[in-house]
Amino acid sequence: MFTQPEIKELRKDFPALNQINPKNGKPPIYLDNSCMTMKPLVVAEAEWDYNTKYPACGGHRGSYWFAEIVHEKVEATRSAIANLIKVPAAKSSEGKPLFPIIFTRNATEGLNLVAATLGLMPGETVLITDKEHNSNLCPWQEFEKRGGKVSILSTKADNTFDMPGFKALLAKDKTIKLVSVNHSSNLDGVTNPLQPIIKAVRDTEKKQARNIFVTIDGAQSLPHLTLNLGDPESPGYLDVDFYAGSIHKMLGPSGLGFLYGKPELLDCLPPYMVGGSTIYETSAYHRPVYAEWPARFEAGLQNYGGIIGAGAAVKYLSRLLPRIKAYENHLNGILSDVLMPLHEAGKIRILGPADALQRGGVLTFLAPERQEGERMRVLREKSWQHNLMYRTGHFCVDVWFSTRQDKLFPSYTPVRLSAYFYNTEAEIETAAKVIQRIFA
Ligand SMILES: Cc1ncc(COP(=O)(O)O)c(C=O)c1O
Description:
Blueprint: H1 4-11, E1 29-30, H2 41-53, H3 65-84, E2 90-91, E3 97-98, E4 101-104, H4 107-117, E5 125-129, H5 138-145, E6 149-153, H6 163-172, E7 176-182, H7 194-208, E8 213-217, E9 242-246, E10 257-261, H8 263-266, E11 279-281, E12 289-290, H9 304-344, E13 349-350, E14 362-367, H10 374-386, E15 388-389, E16 391-392, H11 398-408, E17 413-418, H12 425-439
Parallel strand pairs: 1-15, 5-6, 5-7, 7-8, 8-9
Antiparallel strand pairs: 2-3, 4-10, 9-10, 11-12, 13-14, 14-17, 16-17
Helix pairs in contact: 2-9, 3-9, 6-7, 9-12, 10-12
Bound molecules: pyridoxal-5'-phosphate (PLP).
Residues 34-35, 106-108, 133, 135-136, 182, 186, 217, 219-220, 246, 257 line the site of pyridoxal-5'-phosphate.
């Protein structure tokens, strides 16, 4: 939890939040944090340092002054991410520490990497839920084109995970080779019960004497939750095989993500993209022998400035992370207290459980008319007056909308407000009042 004076101090680190819109003389109220978070100054400074002091390539391409700095800083980011998710270093073939973190452009690329390289076979099944982001749907739909199957578990009426349904599917369908679910949902902020989910998978593996992989889409959880993916002896351990993250939702530069993989699995995966950096050796006369990971999966020159900025973001985030969830819940409580009576009166439809504590910092509601409707027009107008920034649309959760929406409202617009730790109580109260006046 944070106090309002603490938030006021923290906001000084975020130049974007300290601007005034010249059109209306007001500051921003940014509530689209599920899409992209603001970036603290330290991130821009780290990128500036890269661009102005040592803008060279890393990856041991050059053994000279600038390249050494880049290499060290890139590896420092890799180790900071590993620390954040409590993953220890493995060892390279030369006995050097190697953190099982692959830099990607985003969480989407991490999930695609797994789908393309895991060696899933025709006839095998990937089990997902109906609340997956398209990034955790389309790669498996591509697998369907190669003879695979995608099985979609519906969530319960309140949008929470259907554990009995999940266990029944695992017991019944012996073709399930991979379970790939989100940790927290960008639709409604609900966090899936990963420990029981993973336990059910591991129990099934034992009962059926076969392997089942677990891939987690962590895009929405890493910015909010403390994680333990590597220490079975410590609380909260999550025995996942792969975990994809999105740096631009974690205060870091845009267009950057990462994939964690168990070292023994990364050892077995072929490269995803090939070319420079991925090679141990090749020539005109023989096919390539690929390098160890992470190099095997990081083809070509990398976004070094971004990765170095990500290191600063992860350090900044690590310091605050243990207090973030309680504060987001507090903000969502304020918003929900104002908007829940409208939901109960059937004037809007809040998605997910009624209890705000189960929805993190997210409140998504269906407004009872389409974008062209009069009240949506007023909402847009008022939002511009207050610089209120939120999201409308399907948030790339098209499975859920294509199977559920019309049962809730025949004509609707989904509106999502997603708070983060730098939002103030006053901002949330303003957003709540604007929406309440329009839809009451
Ligand atoms: C749950 C979830 N998964 C995946 C993604 C895609 O993330 P990225 O932009 O890092 O590819 C998002 C983005 O909003 C998301 O919310």
